[in-house]
User: Fold this.
Amino acid sequence: MVMSQAADSQSVTILAVPEQVRAARAFVSETLGESHAHALVAVLLASELVTNSVEHSGSAVTGGVVTVTVAAGDKVVRVEVTDCSGDGVPVLLPAAEAADGEAEGGRGMRLVDALSARWGYQRGGGVATTWFELALG
Assistant:
């Protein structure tokens, strides 16, 4: 993890099932606190990344898990979602596909791209971590 300031980091590991996305949102919210300037955006984007892990990663098997890490520094909030590597990688769908009113998905990474200061992913050792950062001030 690369952050410009010292950060307080906390993690939680949850089962990779749709019912646990709510627990991930609650964890991010509680870790940052309701008064944090970016709490709402961090919760929304974390929810998108965890949902992607639950639906598309190698963790999407019985007993699979996802780990959510929140690091809050003086200038940056970073949220990481780590799962078992699947076959794919996070991608931004073309704008036309993401805007399709009939599509059930495809908008999550566009939200991450639009609302975060930066985002990316790392793969290796059988795990994948997708992350985003929100800049403070």
The radius of gyration is 14 Å. Residues 7-135 form a domain with the Heat Shock Protein 90 fold (CATH 3.30.565.10). The first helix runs from residue 21 to 32. The helical segments are 21-32, 39-56, 95-99, 108-115.
